[in-house]
Design goal:
33% helix
């Protein structure tokens, strides 16, 4: 599992101009089963996405395709973790330690 932390690197006005394209990109990843939660940080200086996958390289490719990245308005910090405990709703994503 991955925590994707976005930090804006441009004024919010530039971010807002790309918001529709970013949301379409998010929708594609939700439909593919990669993203399971996302939202803005408070204060609004970026966002957070919870993603599932076994391949960090694939997650890096997905984040590189975000219109926010393509247009240079955000940077990603990717943190991989092993979800050994989850809520009942997230039980399908629970993992075992290696």
């Amino acid at each position: 599992m991955f925590v994707l932390e976005l930090t804006y690197t441009a004024p919010v006005e530039r971010v807002d101009a790309l918001l529709e394209a970013h949301v379409a990109w998010l929708d594609t990843q939700y439909a593919a089963g990669v993203f399971i939660a996302s939202g803005r940080k408070n204060p609004r200086d970026g966002g957070v996405i919870l993603a599932v996958g076994d391949d960090r390289t694939q997650i890096e490719k997905i984040t590189a395709a975000d219109p926010f990245v393509a247009e240079g308005v955000c940077a990603y910090r990717i943190t991989e973790f092993i979800a050994t405990k989850t809520s009942d709703e997230l039980a399908p994503y629970q993992q075992q330690l290696p």
